[in-house]
Design a protein that fits this description.
This protein is an all-alpha fold. It contains 22 helices and five strands. It is found in: Membrane.
């Protein structure tokens, strides 16, 4: 009898407990998620998540980036031939007069390695100057004014570039080189300052919250801010590549009408940037500057590092990895009367610095990725010059990269990523970046194998096949159709969708509000570091060494991707 009573009591207890847990779960699911517009946890678990609509101001920023990238790629895509190759036979402005079918436009005749040096400096300087724009925007002018001021700086550099390509300027190649370098410096200052601010500005235009809505089809969906930010940067990167693809006319203009006309078109396109900025002035969501934070940021890091500094590297490593690493920089860590005088900030600022460093740590792997990317605007164009062009300027092939990205971005946004989410596959930012490194390495292997076949098929073999000529001075290319080189361009495009787009998204979402431009500048600074590394490979940037160069970059990309995923 007692056993029956105890059994009944236990069953009653279990039933009551189950009912209480069910009620608590039900109440939890009915709770409205903080910061949302009436969305409960049950809504979040039940309905499909979609990206929200973008405001008009965001599309205006997209156009600014589109025009800036058209002007950039419409000039830099021509630098390889413009600097490397001499004026074609009987030409005064770089246009091809004889054998236009396979002829190469050229102007300055400085050779492959000098062309590599100037192009690499251009990339280095362009991705160094975002620091200037970021600091000015975050501390003094705000993002809108910074972009407006430096758009005029960049426009002035474009005008000098056009001047360098006039027939009168090309009569003195040394003077034309000086004008080119001057234009690169001025345009790099302007474009770099713009780059640090455009990408945070576009995401700031979206101010929506988590909410649910019934679509015209009758389906209830949840509009997700995180998916919207991911979508914003996918479309932002698409704008970059629409601009890059729009510059396809530049190669034909250079070949058929000379370099001054090819450089003039992107100059006119860029002149629209300040006009569009002014038109949308009252529409933008603007974040005001918030004082100079970089000095305090470095002081916070120095204060936190003090306990970690040791001759024992393991002690330093373990201290930095510790959850309490930042405590030494927080005022709350000390008794009120013993807070060090140098600590003039609060705990929240230390937390923001910690988040900033966490975001920046991810980008430190990217120089190797940008080394692989750097091949598409230089060495691959030189390879293309050694192949059968059949009426296609070798500079045009570079546009396969942005065209591939334009196709891949909506494919990923509308099909691939939703499919993964539907199947419960977590294709996180870290995994996407790893995939980008992997694909970039595959692109380099493709390029190295193709270079091997160019050596075999070219009448000049590995003796500068891009310059191979007949006895009459006409081009004598390898018997390989130039479109075979499409592979590396398209693979690098896929790698960018995985890695570069995700880096933009990661930089914005992880950075504190008042440090977004600085974090974006740090992200872009990795391309400058890649250029510095590239200088170490100067001897491999000769045509007879391209195979070794591509193989080295492939292995480096794969190793870096694995280390990145592991850490």
């Amino acid at each position: 009898m007692a056993d029956q009573f105890n059994g009944a009591a236990n069953n009653a207890y279990k039933n009551a407990r189950s009912s209480r847990e069910l009620l608590e779960t039900s109440n939890h699911k009915a709770d409205i998620i903080e910061g949302s517009e009436g969305v409960t946890q049950e809504d979040l678990d039940t309905y499909r998540h979609v990206a929200d609509r973008l405001p008009t101001s965001a599309w205006l920023v997209v156009f600014v980036e589109f025009a800036e990238r058209w002007s950039y790629y419409g000039t830099t895509n021509l630098y390889s031939n413009y600097i490397r190759a001499p004026l074609p036979l009987d030409s005064k402005d770089g246009r091809v007069i004889h054998d236009r079918e396979n002829g190469i436009a050229g102007a300055l005749g400085q050779g492959q390695q000098k062309a590599f040096t100037i192009r690499t400096f251009n990339t280095f300087f362009l991705y160094l100057t975002p620091w200037i724009g970021a600091i000015l925007a975050d501390t003094r002018w705000g993002r809108y004014k910074t972009i407006m001021v430096f758009s005029f700086v960049c426009l002035f550099g474009h005008i000098i570039l056009v001047w360098s390509a006039f027939p009168d300027s090309l009569e003195n190649p040394d003077g034309a080189v000086l004008l080119l370098v001057l234009s690169i410096i001025i345009m790099g200052l302007g474009a770099g300052a713009i780059k640090a601010n455009v990408s945070p500005l576009i995401a700031e235009q979206y101010t929506g919250k988590l909410r649910k809505e019934i679509l015209p089809s009758g389906e209830t969906v949840v509009f997700s801010p995180s998916l919207t930010i991911q979508s914003i940067y996918l479309y932002f990167y698409a704008a970059i590549n629409f601009g890059a693809a729009g510059s396809v006319s530049a190669a034909f203009l250079a070949r058929d009408h000379g370099y001054w006309s090819a450089f003039l078109v992107p100059t006119v396109i860029f002149a629209l940037v300040p006009v569009v900025l002014a038109m949308g002035r009252n529409k933008y969501v603007l974040t005001p500057p918030d004082g100079s934070i970089l000095p305090d940021t470095f002081r916070v890091i120095r204060t936190a590092m003090a306990p970690a500094c040791s001759w024992n590297p393991m002690h330093t490593y373990l201290t930095i990895k510790s959850d309490k690493f930042w405590d030494a920089a927080k005022p709350s860590h000390y008794p009120e009367t013993r807070t060090p005088k140098m600590i003039t900030w609060d705990d929240q600022f230390v937390n923001e610095v910690a988040r900033t460093c966490s975001a920046c740590a991810v980008f430190m792997f990217f120089p190797v990725f940008w080394l692989c990317y750097s091949q598409i605007d230089g060495n691959l164009a030189t390879m293309a010059a050694a192949m059968k062009l059949n009426g296609t300027p070798n500079d045009v092939i570079q546009n396969l990269n942005p065209i591939a990205i334009i196709i891949l971005i909506p494919l990923m946004e509308k099909i691939v990523y939703p499919y993964f989410r539907k199947r419960g596959i977590q294709f996180s930012p870290i995994k996407r970046i790893f995939a980008g490194f992997t694909v970039a390495g595959i692109a380099m292997v493709y390029a190295g194998v193709l270079q091997h076949f160019i050596y075999q098929e070219s009448p000049c073999h590995d003796n500068e096949p891009s310059k191979c000529q007949t006895e009459g001075g006409l081009p004598n290319p390898a018997n390989i159709n130039v479109w075979v080189i499409a592979g590396p361009y398209m693979l690098v495009g896929l790698a960018e969708v995985f890695a570069a787009v995700t880096a933009l998204e990661y930089a914005f979402t992880k950075a504190p509000a008042r440090m977004k431009s600085v974090v974006m500048a740090f992200s872009q600074f990795q391309a400058a570091l890649a250029s510095v590394l590239n200088f170490a490979f100067t001897k491999l940037n000769a045509e007879n060494m391209f195979g070794w160069l591509f193989g080295t970059f492939a292995i480096a990309s794969w190793i870096t991707g694995v280390v990145f995923l592991w850490t």
